[in-house]
Amino acid sequence: GSRVLLPAGGDPPPSTADAFSHTTHPDMATDGFNWTQLSMSRANNFPSGTIKYLDAATIKERGAMHAWHTTFARSIPALVSGLGDDVAASFSGWRREDYRRHWGGKDVVVAFSPDEMFQRGVLRSGLRRLQAPHRQRMRFDAFLDAQAEEGVGEP
Question: Do residues 57 and 67 touch, judged by C-beta distance below 8 A?
Fold first, then answer.
Protein backbone atom coordinates (compact mmCIF):
# COMPACT_ATOMS: atom_id res chain seq x y z
CA GLY A 1 0.00 0.00 0.00
CA SER A 2 0.97 3.59 -0.38
CA ARG A 3 2.18 5.70 2.51
CA VAL A 4 0.48 8.93 3.43
CA LEU A 5 2.17 11.81 5.24
CA LEU A 6 0.12 13.24 8.07
CA PRO A 7 -1.11 16.81 7.70
CA ALA A 8 -0.25 19.29 10.43
CA GLY A 9 -2.29 18.42 13.49
CA GLY A 10 -3.07 14.91 12.19
CA ASP A 11 -3.16 11.87 14.38
CA PRO A 12 0.28 10.34 14.92
CA PRO A 13 0.93 6.76 13.90
CA PRO A 14 0.56 4.12 16.60
CA SER A 15 3.60 3.71 18.86
CA THR A 16 4.10 0.20 17.49
CA ALA A 17 4.35 1.47 13.90
CA ASP A 18 7.53 1.17 11.87
CA ALA A 19 9.31 4.52 12.21
CA PHE A 20 10.72 4.30 8.66
CA SER A 21 7.31 3.91 7.07
CA HIS A 22 6.02 7.04 8.80
CA THR A 23 9.08 9.25 8.29
CA THR A 24 9.78 8.49 4.66
CA HIS A 25 7.95 10.16 1.81
CA PRO A 26 5.89 7.78 -0.41
CA ASP A 27 8.05 8.67 -3.42
CA MET A 28 11.33 7.77 -1.70
CA ALA A 29 11.62 4.36 -3.36
CA THR A 30 11.07 5.70 -6.89
CA ASP A 31 12.18 9.34 -6.83
CA GLY A 32 14.71 9.38 -4.01
CA PHE A 33 12.76 11.98 -2.01
CA ASN A 34 13.18 11.63 1.73
CA TRP A 35 10.94 13.72 3.97
CA THR A 36 13.34 13.27 6.90
CA GLN A 37 16.21 14.69 4.85
CA LEU A 38 14.06 17.64 3.86
CA SER A 39 13.14 18.36 7.47
CA MET A 40 16.80 18.08 8.48
CA SER A 41 17.68 20.81 5.99
CA ARG A 42 15.74 23.32 8.07
CA ALA A 43 18.22 24.88 10.48
CA ASN A 44 15.76 25.35 13.34
CA ASN A 45 14.83 21.67 13.44
CA PHE A 46 17.94 20.66 15.32
CA PRO A 47 19.66 23.20 17.55
CA SER A 48 23.41 22.62 17.71
CA GLY A 49 25.07 21.23 20.78
CA THR A 50 21.93 19.95 22.45
CA ILE A 51 21.17 16.50 23.78
CA LYS A 52 17.63 15.38 24.45
CA TYR A 53 17.25 13.58 27.77
CA LEU A 54 14.47 11.00 27.86
CA ASP A 55 13.51 8.19 30.16
CA ALA A 56 11.91 4.86 29.43
CA ALA A 57 8.66 5.81 31.19
CA THR A 58 8.21 8.84 28.91
CA ILE A 59 8.84 6.75 25.82
CA LYS A 60 6.38 4.12 27.03
CA GLU A 61 3.78 6.84 27.71
CA ARG A 62 4.23 8.82 24.48
CA GLY A 63 5.40 6.03 22.21
CA ALA A 64 8.56 5.29 20.27
CA MET A 65 7.45 7.54 17.42
CA HIS A 66 7.57 10.56 19.74
CA ALA A 67 11.18 9.75 20.60
CA TRP A 68 11.99 9.20 16.93
CA HIS A 69 10.48 12.47 15.72
CA THR A 70 11.86 14.64 18.53
CA THR A 71 15.39 13.26 18.38
CA PHE A 72 16.83 10.88 15.82
CA ALA A 73 14.81 12.06 12.82
CA ARG A 74 16.28 15.51 13.43
CA SER A 75 19.82 14.30 14.17
CA ILE A 76 19.50 15.26 17.82
CA PRO A 77 21.40 12.84 20.04
CA ALA A 78 19.39 11.36 22.89
CA LEU A 79 20.33 9.92 26.23
CA VAL A 80 17.62 7.53 27.33
CA SER A 81 17.69 6.38 30.94
CA GLY A 82 15.95 3.35 32.36
CA LEU A 83 15.75 1.24 29.21
CA GLY A 84 17.46 -1.74 30.80
CA ASP A 85 15.96 -1.46 34.29
CA ASP A 86 13.58 -4.41 33.84
CA VAL A 87 16.33 -6.62 32.45
CA ALA A 88 18.78 -5.58 35.17
CA ALA A 89 16.18 -6.32 37.85
CA SER A 90 15.69 -9.83 36.48
CA PHE A 91 19.41 -10.56 37.16
CA SER A 92 19.54 -8.84 40.53
CA GLY A 93 21.07 -11.12 43.13
CA TRP A 94 22.22 -13.77 40.67
CA ARG A 95 25.26 -15.82 41.66
CA ARG A 96 27.70 -17.62 39.37
CA GLU A 97 25.64 -20.83 39.62
CA ASP A 98 22.51 -19.01 38.38
CA TYR A 99 24.39 -17.95 35.24
CA ARG A 100 25.75 -21.47 34.85
CA ARG A 101 22.26 -22.99 35.13
CA HIS A 102 20.78 -20.62 32.54
CA TRP A 103 23.59 -20.28 29.99
CA GLY A 104 26.40 -22.66 30.97
CA GLY A 105 26.07 -24.77 27.83
CA LYS A 106 26.18 -21.84 25.41
CA ASP A 107 29.26 -21.12 23.28
CA VAL A 108 30.68 -17.64 23.82
CA VAL A 109 33.67 -15.66 22.58
CA VAL A 110 35.71 -14.27 25.45
CA ALA A 111 38.60 -11.81 25.55
CA PHE A 112 41.41 -12.20 28.05
CA SER A 113 43.59 -9.26 29.00
CA PRO A 114 45.41 -8.22 32.17
CA ASP A 115 44.41 -4.64 31.34
CA GLU A 116 40.79 -3.80 32.21
CA MET A 117 40.93 -0.94 29.68
CA PHE A 118 41.98 -3.28 26.87
CA GLN A 119 39.58 -1.85 24.31
CA ARG A 120 40.86 1.71 24.45
CA GLY A 121 42.71 3.17 21.51
CA VAL A 122 46.50 3.29 21.70
CA LEU A 123 48.99 5.36 19.71
CA ARG A 124 51.20 3.21 17.48
CA SER A 125 53.45 4.61 14.75
CA GLY A 126 51.64 7.92 15.01
CA LEU A 127 48.22 6.32 14.40
CA ARG A 128 45.45 5.44 16.82
CA ARG A 129 44.80 1.71 16.92
CA LEU A 130 42.35 -0.36 18.91
CA GLN A 131 44.06 -2.86 21.17
CA ALA A 132 42.93 -6.36 20.39
CA PRO A 133 43.45 -8.86 23.20
CA HIS A 134 43.45 -12.60 22.77
CA ARG A 135 39.96 -13.96 22.10
CA GLN A 136 38.76 -17.50 22.14
CA ARG A 137 35.55 -19.47 21.82
CA MET A 138 34.52 -21.55 24.82
CA ARG A 139 31.45 -22.73 26.67
CA PHE A 140 30.08 -20.20 29.11
CA ASP A 141 30.42 -22.61 32.04
CA ALA A 142 34.15 -22.96 31.24
CA PHE A 143 34.45 -19.17 31.29
CA LEU A 144 32.75 -19.08 34.69
CA ASP A 145 35.22 -21.73 35.91
CA ALA A 146 38.14 -19.65 34.60
CA GLN A 147 36.82 -16.60 36.47
CA ALA A 148 36.54 -18.58 39.69
CA GLU A 149 40.08 -19.98 39.27
CA GLU A 150 41.43 -16.45 38.82
CA GLY A 151 39.75 -15.39 42.03
CA VAL A 152 37.17 -13.16 40.38
CA GLY A 153 34.35 -12.66 42.86
CA GLU A 154 30.71 -13.40 42.31
CA PRO A 155 29.09 -11.26 39.62
Answer: no
* pLDDT tens track, the chain, 155 positions: 445 454 445 555 555 555 555 555 555 555 555 555 555 555 555 556 678 888 999 888 988 888 888 888 777 888 889 988 988 999 899 999 999 999 999 999 988 777 766 667 777 788 877 777 778 899 999 999 998 998 888 87
State in Å, rounded, how far the first CA of the chain is from the last one.
50
Q: Rounded to two decimals, what is the model's pTM?
A: 0.49
Residue 35's H or E segment, with its range, is helix 35-40
Cβ distance 51 to 45 under 8 Å? no
Coil vs helix vs strand at 86: helix
